[in-house]
Amino acid sequence: MSDKVLFKSGSYTITTRAREILGKVATVINGKPDFEAMVEGHTDNVPYGEKGLIKNNWDLSTKRATAIVNILTENNNIPKDNLTAAGRGEYAPISDNTTTEGRAKNRRIEVILTPKLDEISKLLNEM
């Protein structure tokens, strides 16, 4: 998901539109009770220039991922032990950071669903 839809520039406060989108994401997560979800925040490589609570892009990406997790657990009854918030900062780009378009693609939130490891272990032990 693009950061433009979810947050204002340089902020980790979730927009009203983002809450609607996250309701749909929650429906998907709730439909997969045997899965865990990791919310990853990503940024471009432009240094974070504002002063205040945010120290750098990595910090911003982590705060954004945490904000998403908080909304998912507060409003959608997703168990907290099924969610992980992770910040990747500028270190996992999917596009070229030398162009405006590339930087825009790199500023994103990814929600990654994975089977619960304990469930996989149980299945393997039953074989």
Description of the molecule:
- With 127 residues, the chain is an alpha+beta fold.
- It has five helices and three strands; from the N terminus they run ααβαβαβα.
- The protein has a three-stranded mixed sheet.
- The longest helix is centred in the middle third of the chain and has 19 residues.
- It is globular, with a radius of gyration of 16 Å.
- The relative contact order is 0.23.
Would you kindly provide a brief summary of this structure?
This protein has 127 residues and is α+β, with helices and mostly antiparallel strands. It has helices spanning 3-6, 16-30, 57-75, 100-106, 117-126, and strands at residues 35-42, 83-89, 108-115.
